[in-house]
Amino acid sequence: MTDTSQTVTDALGAMPLAEASLLFNQGFCEAIGLEYLELTGDRVQARWQVGPHLFQPAGIVNGGVYCTVVETLASIAGTVWLGDRGHVVGVNNNTDFLRAARTGTLTATGTPIHRGRTQQLWQVVIVDEQERLIARGQVRLANIEDTGRLANG
Hints:
Oligomer: single chain
């Protein structure tokens, strides 16, 4: 069950978790339907429902969905941890697909492996309702303090 009283702090100020979920569920993440259960600079957890809108032609969840969830959770938690010092950008995403999913609810949990001055490394594990490992990945993030340089070539 979602704890709607939890707030996200640091880079986001004091924002209720439900409000943060709306903020982060835009674009492709909205299509996936992520529901954040926990979001701090030390841990992030979200879940979503498997459905045909996420399938590849063989009728299982497209691997790109797992890659997106892994990078999204790592980037959001990494941003919360970095706070007002800047932004993070993903520079490597390595996701392994271990078990196919066709139905049910999947839950992803991200935790930091390393957080340093210039980079972070996060691990994200995705399980099904029976706690079976579906996918796992890690994302290396660059901590960008001079945010004016982002996307300026």
